Amino acid sequence: MPRPACRVIPALAVLSLVIAACTPAVAPAPPAPSAEFRAPAGGPPLIATGPDGAAELAAAAARVGAPDPSDRRRLRPVAAAMLPLIADAPEGQRFRAISGPRALIAGIPAAQCPALVAEGGADRKGAIARAVAGCFAALTAAGAPPDCGCQLLAEGDLLLAPADAFAYAKGVPARVISAGRLLPERYVASANGDTLTLYAATRPVWRVAAGTLQRLDPPGPALVATRRPIGLDRGWIRARIDALDPEGRPVSVLIDP
């Protein structure tokens, strides 16, 4: 019976196989940041002056989202990471997490109109209507001036306000008034959802959560507290939180004073 023929593998081929086996695999390049949003080159602000202005805002947003081909204002892609209000602020994160039609609306002028609302709906008109209603309800609850309006910042994946409207400060200054005296300590307030924590350097000292104010260092009881919104600044609702300590003395926290 004939013996099988032997295959002779050239030395160069063997060397190539050895090199290939010993060469570490090159990791693929990371994907480019997702451009979740689109922004026009310009355009007027979209502002409702009353709760009945939602339909007009929805119509205006629809026109921006489907511009005439001859319109030079093209929609440019924008990654969420470039929008601190949406990427980092609690209400912005809520807007981003809404699947389907959605709207993000803020009180204007911001300094005296404390409202920032994200809502979803069955369609564009429904989402904007719910956000407008929520914005004006927040303004009414805060006792804001009657000339406050509500500006549509974003709808779906459309950015409908200038870039500075999407600014967000991860920490803002805070002060405490106790028994009518402004305490000398200066704090930085940080938000985690609806909970605010006041830090002295890296040490948490006060916490505002679920209608309570509590001193953490040194530890103290949770005091029943009320919050009075004052304005909106870089994604924060500027506010005053008032409570009474166990001796009945007033304690107040000023957020972004």
Query: Ends: how far apart?
Result: 99 Å
Radius of gyration: 27 Å
Low-confidence parts lasting 5 or more residues at pLDDT below 50? 4-34
Helices and strands: which structural class?
A: alpha+beta
- Percent in helix: 10-25%
Number of strands: 16
Give the overall shape, derived from the CA principal axes: elongated
- Give the helices and strands as they follow along the chain: HEEHEHHEEHEEEEEEEEEEE
Tally of contiguous helical segments: 5
The profile of the biggest β sheet is:
8 strands, antiparallel, barrel
Percent of residues in beta strands?
35-45%
Strand arrangement in the largest pleated sheet = 8-10-11-12-13-14-15-16
Mean pLDDT figure: 86
Structure description:
By secondary structure, this protein is α+β, with helices and mostly antiparallel strands. The chain is built from five helices and 16 strands. Strands 8-10-11-12-13-14-15-16 form an eight-stranded antiparallel barrel. α2 crosses α5 (124-142). The model is unreliable at 4-34 (pLDDT under 50).
Topology:
Layout: H1 11-22, E1 37-39, E2 47-48, H2 54-65, E3 76-78, H3 84-87, H4 90-97, E4 102-108, E5 116-120, H5 124-142, E6 149-155, E7 158-159, E8 172-178, E9 181-182, E10 187-192, E11 195-200, E12 203-209, E13 212-216, E14 219-233, E15 236-244, E16 250-255
Antiparallel strand pairs: 1-3, 2-6, 4-5, 4-6, 6-7, 8-9, 8-10, 8-16, 10-11, 11-12, 12-13, 13-14, 14-15, 15-16
Helix pairs in contact: 2-5
